[in-house]
Amino acid sequence: MAKKNKVKLSFDRRGGVLVVSRVMRESYAYESMSPTAKVLMDLLHMQWRNDRPVAYGVREAAKKIGCKPETAGKAFKVLEERGFIVRETESLFNSKTGSKAREWRLTWMPFEYREPTHDWEKWQPCN
């Protein structure tokens, strides 16, 4: 039996593609968020792996986005409140043993070989 050659598609020649649900991007939960929260979603998505939560902290996000840590912290809070992310573990700061960023599960992506939970679909704006 002949081996099939693995062909890289033209859109994937530079090392990866992020695929996002159009339904999610067109939802009110997503469209009504700040640009900072939307960029943070993409940054988290770039770190996603099926077998582990995403470790990403406020300082790292602020540096990548180009905003204050307070602004990045608010973006995390918005994503969590709207159900786009779920906190898996808390952060830890220890000057002797090292720090550890919070770990997040992205609800629009599979996790540990289970289907996405799409918690963001349940979000309702407060009136």
What does this structure look like?
This is Helix-turn-helix domain-containing protein. This protein has 127 residues and is α+β, with helices and mostly antiparallel strands. It has a domain at 35-122: Winged helix-like DNA-binding domain superfamily/Winged helix DNA-binding domain (Arc Repressor Mutant, subunit A, Orthogonal Bundle), CATH 1.10.10. The protein is built from five helices and three strands. It has helices at residues 22-25, 28-31, 35-47, 58-65, 69-81, and strands at residues 54-55, 85-89, 103-106. A three-stranded antiparallel β-sheet has the order 1-3-2. The radius of gyration is 17 Å and the shape is globular. The mean pLDDT is 88.
Key features?
alpha+beta, Arc Repressor Mutant, subunit A, 3 strands, 33% helix
Quick summary:
Helices cover 33% and strands 9% of the residues. The chain is an alpha+beta fold and 127 residues long. The chain is globular and about 50 Å long.
Secondary-structure blueprint:
Elements (H helix, E strand, L loop, with lengths): L21 H4 L2 H4 L3 H13 L6 E2 L2 H8 L3 H13 L3 E5 L13 E4 L21
Antiparallel strand pairs: 1-3, 2-3
Helix pairs in contact: 3-5, 4-5
